[in-house]
Amino acid sequence: MNFIKYLEDRKLLVNNFLEKRTAKKGISRVDEAMAYSLLAGGKRLRPILLMAAADAVGGNGYNYLSVACGLEMIHTYSLIHDDLPVMDNDDYRRGRLTNHKVYGEALALLAGDGLLTLAFEVMLEQKNIAPEVLIETVKEVAMCAGNYGMVGGQVLDLDSEDKQITQAQMRTLHEAKTGALFIAAVRSGARMAGAKSEELLAMTHFAELFGLAFQITDDIMDVESTKEEMGKNSGSDAKLNKSTYVTLYTLEGAKALAEKTLHEALECLEPFGPKAEPLREITKMLYNRKN
Amino acid sequence: MNFIKYLEDRKLLVNNFLEKRTAKKGISRVDEAMAYSLLAGGKRLRPILLMAAADAVGGNGYNYLSVACGLEMIHTYSLIHDDLPVMDNDDYRRGRLTNHKVYGEALALLAGDGLLTLAFEVMLEQKNIAPEVLIETVKEVAMCAGNYGMVGGQVLDLDSEDKQITQAQMRTLHEAKTGALFIAAVRSGARMAGAKSEELLAMTHFAELFGLAFQITDDIMDVESTKEEMGKNSGSDAKLNKSTYVTLYTLEGAKALAEKTLHEALECLEPFGPKAEPLREITKMLYNRKN
Fold this sequence. Notes:
By secondary structure, chain A is an all-alpha fold. Chain A has a single domain, classed as Farnesyl Diphosphate Synthase, CATH 1.10.600. Chain A contains 15 helices and two strands. A two-stranded antiparallel ribbon of chain A has the order 1-2. In chain A, helix 1 packs across helix 4 (65-83), helix 3 crosses helix 9 and helix 8 (150-159) runs antiparallel to helix 9. Chain A is globular and about 45 Å long. The two termini of chain A are 24 Å apart. The mean pLDDT of chain A is 94. At the A-B interface, helix 2, helix 4, helix 6, helix 7 and helix 8 of A face helix 2, helix 4, helix 6, helix 7 and helix 8 of B.
C-alpha cells in the first residue's frame, strides 16, 4: 500500500468537498470568515480517520465524505472559538492569523456558530446509508461534540489553568476535549460501513488510545517544536500555566507513555488484518509528530 | 377552545422536557450554565408554534416534543452569544442577569456551543416519525439556523449598526435573523405531521409573515415598553444606533404595518379551518405584545 498516496487522495477529496460546500455566495460576510478557517489547510485527521475506519471494517471510506467533512467543520469551529481572547487568546493557527485577528471577535464567534450548524446540515446530507443508521451516527457525533464531550472538556481545560491537577483529572479532561471527537470519527466510519458490534467495540478502544497518544504527543510538541513547525505559537501551555503530560510525567515519562499507548492502539487493530493498514499508518504518524 | 390552557399545557410540557434533558450531572460546570439560560422561563414560542402547526394540519403536536425543544435550545444559544460583550453586550435577559454576567464570558461562549450541539442530539432523538422525514426536518432546521439563516442574519445585524439601511435591507436582515427559525418551527411541525405540499407552502407563507410581524412588534416594544415588562433593557436598539421598523417607518407606520402583516398571516391559515385555531390565537397575541 502506498500510504502517502492514500493520505493525499483523501485530503484532496476532503478539501474539494469543503471548498465546494462553502463556495455558494451567502447573505453575509460570515461565509468568508467560515471559509477562511475551514480552508486553511490542516491535516484533515478526523475525516481521514473516519474513512480509514470504514476501510478497516471492509467498507469504502470514500462513501462517507459528508459525515467526514462535518467532523472537520466541528473541529474547525472549536479551534476558532478556542482561539478567541476570552479563551486561549491565540494569534496564529495553521500558520496563519487566527479568525478573530482577521475578522474581529464578533464575526469569529459567529463563524464558529455557522460552522457548527453547517456541520449538522452537511452530515445529514450523507447518502449511501440507511436513514436510521445515519440518525444514530449523527446523534453520536453530537454527543461526542457537546457538553459530555468536547465542549465539556474545554470547560475542564479552562478550569485547570493556573492549577495543579492530577493525572486522572488530566486524562478525563483530554478524553473529553480531544478524545471524544476521535471516537466519533472512528466509530462513525466503522458504523456506517456496517461494523459488527465486536468490531465497533475494538474500534472504540482503538480510538480512545489514539486520542490519548495524540494528546501526549501534542504536549511533547508544545515543548519541543518551533512555531514554524507547529503553525501556531509553541509553548502556549506553559504560558497559560496548564498541566500537561510533560509537566505531570516529565518529558521522558511522556515520551514513554506515548510509545506504550501507541503500541496498545495498534494492538486493537490486529483483528482487522490488512484492511486496517491505513489506520495503522495514521497511528504510526503520531510517533514523529511535528504539527 | 380554551387557548390559555392550550398555551399553559404546552409550555409546561416544554419546560418539563428541557428540565429533564438537562438534569443529568455532567462532567463540567457548563451544564449549569446551559441550564441557567435554558430554564430561565421565556415564552417557548418556537416549540409551541411547531406543535400548533402540527395540530393545524391534523396531527398531534405533542408527538414532536424533541424537535420542538431542540428549536428552543437553538434559540437560547443564540441569545447567550448575542448578549456577549463582543456582540450586543446586554446585562439582562428574561428578567435575569445574562449568562456571561453570571458565569463569565468563556463559560457563556461554551454554554452556547453546548446548547447548539445538544439541540441536534435532542432533535435526532425524535420518535413517532419516519427516519427519512426526521432527517429532512433536522437538515432544514440546520439550514434555517446557519449562515444562510439566523447566523447570517446576525452578521447583517452587526453590519447595520451605526448605519442607515434601506427598508429592503432591513427586511432581508430580519427574515434571516429571526424569521428563519420561525419558518423552521412551523414547517417542521407541519412536515412531521404529514402536511401535503400545498399545506406546507401555505404554512411557509404564514411563518414568513408571522416572523415579520414579530420583528415589527419587537421594535415597537423596544420603544414603548419598560424594562420590567420586557425582562431586558428597553431602548437597546437606539443605544446601538440600529435601524428598526420604528426608525424607518415611524411609530405609527410600524403599527400599521404590523396590523397589515398580522392580517395577512391570518389569511394564510384560512384553508386549515378550526384545527388552526391555536396558531391563529398565537398570531393574535402579537397584537398586544409586552415581551
